[in-house]
Write a structure and sequence with these properties.
Elements lengths: L2 H13 L5 H9 L2 H6 E7 L6 E6 L6 E5 L3 E6 L4 E7 L6 E6 L7 E6 L3 E7 L5 E8 L4 E6 L6 E6 L3 E6 L4 E7 L13 E6 L6 E6 L4 E5 L16 E3 L12 E6 L5 E5 L4 E4 L16 E4 L4 E4 L15 E3 L12 E3 L5 E5 L4 E6 L5 E6 L5 E6 L6 E5 L4 E6 L10 H9 L28 H7 L10 H5 L9
Antiparallel strand pairs: 1-30, 2-3, 3-4, 4-5, 6-7, 7-8, 8-9, 10-11, 11-12, 12-13, 14-15, 15-16, 16-17, 18-19, 19-20, 20-23, 21-22, 24-25, 25-26, 26-27, 28-29, 29-30
C-alpha cells in the first residue's frame, strides 16, 4: 500500500476509535514523512550569546535554554516568547542546564565554563535563590539528572572528575577521576559528556578526550576512588580506533533500549549495543605490556593483544556531519528512537535513519555551527541552537523559508567552512574557551541597536518574568 494510503487508513482508524491517538501520533513521528516535513516555524530571541543548551520540561510545555550570556531562559515555545529568565550567577558560559523532576519547573541545575555547578530555585513571586554546589578548576560540561528523582544528579568535568549531587542537603561528592585507558601512565582524561541509562538508572556512561565510552555502575563505585573492579564495567570503541588515542568523544546519548550513541570529533557517530562491548568480547583495555622486538625496547600499548580487529562486531555508523570546532551533542529522534540527529560545523542538522545509517535529511539550522538538537518529549517538535543567538523551533508544515540543504551542498560547505566570515565569531580550538570581546557586547547600548532586527521580546528580565506566574496562587 502506498505511504499516502497508509496514512489515510491510519487516520480513519483513529477517527473511528480503532487506533489509540497516542499510537497514531507515534506512527506519524516515526515516519520519514515527519522528518521531511520539518521546517523552522519560530525563532526564539532573548539571549545575547551562543545558546549552548536546550531541554524541555517533562510535559513539553516549557523549553529551557542557557547561553554564553550566563543566563537561562524558560520559554513558552508555542507562543514564541520567554516566560521567565534570570542570571545564573556563573561567571562564564553556561554549558548545560536541566529541570529537576517533580519540581513544578522551579528547580534548575546548571554548569558552566567557570567550573561551577549551581542550583537555582524559583520561589513564589519570581524571586530566584541560587546556590553554588561546587567550584572546580576546569569547565564542567554536562549534567545528568537521575530519572524520577527531584534531588539527585551527576556532572562530569574537564579535570576528569565525576560528581554526585543531592539537593536535599546541598551535598556534592566526587565519585572518582576517570583514568586513561593506558593505566601505566597514571594520566586522566578530560570529560565532555555523561548520560544515564534510562533502562538501568544505576548505570551511566562518560566520554571525553580519548576514544572510549565508559560504562560505570553506581553500585560498584567507592566514592573518591574507582569502581571495585578497578575501572568501568564496560568500554565501547569502534574496532579501528582501539588504542590509537587520536580522537575524542563530545556527545553521548542512550536509547530506550540501552543502546549508546557516541559522536567522535574527527571520526563519525557510532551506535553501540551490548555485543560491541570490549569486556563482552573478552578484551581487557590497556593492561598488557608489549615488547617491540625491532627496537628492543619495552613500551605500553593501550590496544591489548592478542586480539583481531577483524573479528570484533562493527557498530552502526552515521557519516556526513563534521564535529571539530565545538563540543556538540548527539541525540535520538522519534518515539522509539527511530532516527539519529546531530548538528554540524557546516551549520546543518543531520538526521539519519537508525536502522541502516542512511542520511535522510540535512536542514540548514545556523549560519555557522549547530551544537544542540532536542526533541519534544511527546510532540512533533524539535528545537535547535548553535553559534547564532536564537533558538529554532522545527515543526511539520510550511516554514518561514526553504530549510532543506542538499547533501552535496552540505559536503561542499563542510570543506569550505573556514570562509572569510568565520573569524566573526569564536571557535573552540581544542576545546579552549576563547572569545573576541568585540563579538559579544552586553551593554544596553548594543541591545537598543539590535532591537530593530529582533522580532521577539528583548525586554529586561523583570518584564519577561511577569509573563509567567510562578506563585501557587497562579
Amino acid at each position: 500500500m502506498p505511504p499516502g494510503s497508509k496514512r489515510m487508513a491510519g487516520l480513519r482508524e483513529r477517527e473511528v476509535g480503532h487506533l489509540p491517538p497516542k499510537r497514531f501520533a507515534n506512527a506519524v513521528m516515526a515516519s520519514q514523512d515527519f522528518v521531511h516535513s520539518l521546517n523552522i516555524q519560530k525563532r526564539l530571541r532573548k539571549h545575547r550569546g551562543c545558546v549552548n543548551t536546550l531541554s524541555f520540561n517533562a510535559d513539553g510545555s516549557l523549553l529551557l535554554s542557557g547561553s554564553d550570556d550566563r543566563s537561562v531562559v524558560l520559554w513558552n515555545w508555542e507562543k514564541g516568547v520567554p516566560t521567565f529568565s534570570f542570571h545564573t550567577g556563573h561567571s562564564n558560559n553556561v554549558l548545560h542546564a536541566q529541570f529537576m523532576h517533580f519540581s513544578d519547573d522551579r528547580s534548575i541545575v546548571s554548569c558552566a565554563a567557570d567550573g561551577e555547578v549551581r542550583h537555582s530555585q524559583i520561589e513564589d513571586g519570581g524571586r530566584v535563590v541560587t546556590d553554588e554546589l561546587v567550584e572546580l578548576e576546569f569547565a564542567v560540561h554536562r549534567l545528568a539528572v537521575e530519572p524520577g528523582s527531584p534531588h539527585t544528579f551527576y556532572c562530569c568535568c574537564e579535570d576528569s572528575s565525576v560528581w554526585l549531587f543531592d539537593l536535599r542537603g546541598k551535598d556534592a561528592m566526587e565519585l572518582f577521576k576517570c583514568g586513561a585507558a593506558d593505566q601505566f601512565t597514571g594520566e586522566n582524561i578530560e570529560l565532555f559528556a555523561i548520560a544515564i541509562d534510562p533502562r538501568k538508572p544505576c548505570c551511566f556512561a562518560v566520554a571525553g578526550s580519548d576514544e572510549y565510552a565508559r560504562i560505570y555502575d553506581t553500585r560498584m563505585i567507592s566514592p573518591g576512588g574507582h569502581s571495585n573492579s578497578g575501572g568501568p564495567v564496560e568500554y565501547f570503541c569502534p574496532p579501528h580506533l582501539i588504542g590509537d588515542n587520536k580522537d575524542g568523544i563530545t556527545g553521548i546519548a542512550f536509547s530506550q533500549t540501552s543502546e549508546l550513541l557516541a559522536s567522535y570529533s574527527y571520526d563519525n557517530i557510532y551506535l553501540f549495543s551490548r555485543e560491541h562491548g570490549l569486556h563482552f568480547n573478552n578484551i581487557e583495555v590497556g593492561e598488557r605490556l608489549l615488547m617491540d622486538e625491532t627496537e628492543g625496547v619495552c613500551h605500553i600499548n593501550t590496544a591489548p593483544l592478542p586480539f583481531s580487529r577483524d573479528k570484533l562486531p562493527i557498530p552502526k555508523t552515521f557519516k556526513g556531519h563534521r564535529n571539530i570546532h565545538t563540543i556538540k551533542g548527539v541525540n535520538f529522534l522519534g518515539p522509539n528512537c527511530d532516527y539519529v540527529t546531530s548538528g554540524s560545523d557546516c551549520g546543518s542538522i543531520f538526521i539519519w535513519r537508525k536502522k541502516d545509517g542512511q542520511v535522510i535529511r540535512a536542514m540548514k539550522g545556523d549560519k555557522q555551527i549547530v551544537n544542540c538538537v532536542e526533541q519534544h518529549p511527546s510532540g512533533t517538535v524539535v528545537a535547535s541552537s548553535g553559534i547564532e543567538n536564537d533558538i529554532k523551533i522545527w515543526e511539520p508544515g510550511e516554514g518561514e523559508n526553504p530549510s532543506i540543504a542538499l547533501i552535496d551542498e552540505v559536503e561542499m560547505d563542510m570543506w569550505h567552512s573556514s570562509s572569510s566570515d568565520s573569524d566573526a565569531f569564536f571557535f573552540y580550538d581544542n576545546y579552549d574557551y576563547m572569545m573576541d570581546s568585540d563579538d559579544f557586547d552586553f551593554s544596553y547600548e548594543n541591545d537598543e541597536e539590535e532591537g530593530d532586527d529582533e522580532t521577539s521580546s528583548e525586554e529586561d528580565d523583570d518584564a519577561d518574568n511577569g509573563g509567567k506566574d510562578m506563585s501557587d496562587d497562579g
